[in-house]
């Protein structure tokens, strides 16, 4: 009876409001022309693009040799174990990225007509800034499209994605073929150049009109006007430093083994030189902040952030989230009332060297298999909860063995929220957060978008490939110098770092070391999945674990990987292939 009354009421409501539903009030429909007089509405097109930026913590590690997850229905787990197809693609960014580009193209075609402010100088600066943001964001989305969807076709062409620089209407020809990878690079660099032309390198208030950069001085010499538009109120918007960071990311991708091709002329030297710009801006090879490794849990630093200020480690970040428990609720062990989603692998744990700098497989490492966590790289305890670690607000001991972890539920496969590998993730989490339902305490968090450490690692990798371990290409610092600084910050290698000195004379050994340092420094930050592919190395290393109960230490195989060779490159969405016959699929995904 209640259902009949509800349906009757809904029917009467539709009848009474039929005219309004079929004929919306004109004021509810925004037109393009309204952009010109409504600056907030116009800026909304940029806001939509910002909201579409891919998340930094994407948990793609679940599909690598670095981790597994206890979420049985997780898309990355399914991907890694054999269900990745062009129609079922967890890393598909096609629709999201091109949707954002549509907004940006519409904005760029109309930005010069918008009345941004009553003051003409301020209006011109607003126009420059937002135009620069739009160009920069368009380059950003093109970079992600290349990373996720570029690849070789069956006839051997290295293709990117369609280049769309005009707003598409219902009358546009959507059946556009994919541009070459090289042409996509050119488009990205062109947009980044335009971004740099229109943006300050960083958004800071100036104290004197003489400090106004020359490109803006032609518009205004008024300090208040400059600070209003280009000052601290605009922090966390796209800026020149971010543009250079994406140029570095793009060049690293393009110079990597997976994208080597006669049609792609990008060199390792280019990638190194682009990253060097940022390193010099930061202050040189030794300028990384001492607490940069723990950016996610530097309590005083994070709690003191305000006004859009970045911590010293961060180039770009998302907005602060206060009283937040999300990461901890998802990844704390069960005894700390978490669901333990991210289970680091034994493979990753073994990648951390000893504190003396030697890999645990080296005869000089002093590694003891019976005491696997003694004398290790301090980053291991910082980033991973292992058997016997302490964690949480009460510094509780976490036991992960099948027997020792039975009582708390933290042991391997004890419950659905328990670890599958004998490890829990500690990185990204604040230990002063309490997710106990009876006494929940959240804390301030932020998600990064770009860290300085990533830029330093880009330089190290590219410089080693371009000029060898100690060559600097005229930049004043080498791959060796960068890795030495990173390991020193981590507390690895002692005073002289003898293992690094051994690698210094061998480009291949240095390559292996640099890749491993990148793996450790950026673990759980969404890089490993893409690094394995651009390096074209083994994707099918079995994810392993370890079951520790007292003196019993038993290695276990946890999850096999089922990737095929063609999966070094992601697919074009199957729906696009069905709709448009000019779009070629990457080899193997047909």
TrEMBL record:
Keyword Magnesium: no
A GO cellular component annotation in the UniProt record: cell outer membrane
Residue ranges annotated for the RagB/SusD domain, each copy included: 312-589
InterPro entries listed in its UniProt record: SusD-like_N, SusD_RagB_dom, TPR-like_helical_dom_sf
Domain annotation SusD-like N-terminal: ranges: 47-205
Primary location: membrane
Keywords, in A-Z order: Cell outer membrane, Membrane, Signal
Compartment list: Cell outer membrane
Family: Belongs to the SusD family.
Protein name, entry field: RagB/SusD family nutrient uptake outer membrane protein
Naturally occurring in which organism (per UniProt): Sphingobacterium alkalisoli
Biological classification of the source: Bacteria, Pseudomonadati, Bacteroidota, Sphingobacteriia, Sphingobacteriales
């Amino acid at each position: 009876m209640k259902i009949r009354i509800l349906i009757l009421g809904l029917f009467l409501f539709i009848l009474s409001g039929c005219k309004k539903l079929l004929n919306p009030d004109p004021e509810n429909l925004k037109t393009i022309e309204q952009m010109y007089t409504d600056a907030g509405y116009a800026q909304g097109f940029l806001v939509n693009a910002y909201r579409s930026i891919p998340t930094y913590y994407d948990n793609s590690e679940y599909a690598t040799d670095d981790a597994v997850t206890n979420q049985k229905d997780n898309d990355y787990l399914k991907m890694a174990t054999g269900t990745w197809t062009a129609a079922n693609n967890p890393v598909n960014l096609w629709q999201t990225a091109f949707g954002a580009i549509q907004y940006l193209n519409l904005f760029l075609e109309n930005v010069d007509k918008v009345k941004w402010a009553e003051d003409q100088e301020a209006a011109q600066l607003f126009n420059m800034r937002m135009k620069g943001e739009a160009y920069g964001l368009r380059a950003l989305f093109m970079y992600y499209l290349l990373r996720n969807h570029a690849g070789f076709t069956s006839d051997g062409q290295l293709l990117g994605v369609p280049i769309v620089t005009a707003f598409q209407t219902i009358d546009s020809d959507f059946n556009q073929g994919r541009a070459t990878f090289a042409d996509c690079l050119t488009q990205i660099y062109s947009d980044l150049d335009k971004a740099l032309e229109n943006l300050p390198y960083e958004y800071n208030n100036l104290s004197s009109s003489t400090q106004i950069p020359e490109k803006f001085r032609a518009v205004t010499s008024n300090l208040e006007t400059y600070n209003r538009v280009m000052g601290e109120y605009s922090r966390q918007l796209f800026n020149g430093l971010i543009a250079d960071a994406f140029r570095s990311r793009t060049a690293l991708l393009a110079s990597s083994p997976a994208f080597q091709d006669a049609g792609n002329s990008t060199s390792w030297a280019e990638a190194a030189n682009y990253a060097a710009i940022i390193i010099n801006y930061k202050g040189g090879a030794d300028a990384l902040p001492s607490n940069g490794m723990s950016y996610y849990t530097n309590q005083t630093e994070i709690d003191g952030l305000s006004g859009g200020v970045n911590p010293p480690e961060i180039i770009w970040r998302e907005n602060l989230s206060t009283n937040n428990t999300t990461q901890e609720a998802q990844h704390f062990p069960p005894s700390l009332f978490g669901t333990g989603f991210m289970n680091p692998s034994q493979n990753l744990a073994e990648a951390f060297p000893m504190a003396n700098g030697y890999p645990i497989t080296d005869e000089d490492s002093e590694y003891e298999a019976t005491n696997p966590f003694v004398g290790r790289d301090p980053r291991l305890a910082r980033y991973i909860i292992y058997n016997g670690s302490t964690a949480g607000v009460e510094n509780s001991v976490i036991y992960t063995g099948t027997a020792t972890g039975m009582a708390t539920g933290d042991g391997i496969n004890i419950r659905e929220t328990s670890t599958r590998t004998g490890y829990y993730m500690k990185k990204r989490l604040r230990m002063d957060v309490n997710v106990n339902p009876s006494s929940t305490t959240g804390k301030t968090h932020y998600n990064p978008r770009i860290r300085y450490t990533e830029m330093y690692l880009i330089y190290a990798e590219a410089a080693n490939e371009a000029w060898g371990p100690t060559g600097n290409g005229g930049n004043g610092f080498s791959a060796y110098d960068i890795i030495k600084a990173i390991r020193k910050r981590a507390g690895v290698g002692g005073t002289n770092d003898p293992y690094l000195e051994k690698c210094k004379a061998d480009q291949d050994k240095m390559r292996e070391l640099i890749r491993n340092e990148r793996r450790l420094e950026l673990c759980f930050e969404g890089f490993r999945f893409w690094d394995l592919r651009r390096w074209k190395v083994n994707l099918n290393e079995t994810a392993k674990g370890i079951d520790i109960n007292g003196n019993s230490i038993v290695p276990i195989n946890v999850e096999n990987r089922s990737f095929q060779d063609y999966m070094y490159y992601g697919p074009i969405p199957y729906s696009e292939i069905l709709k448009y016959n000019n779009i070629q699929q990457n080899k193997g995904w047909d």
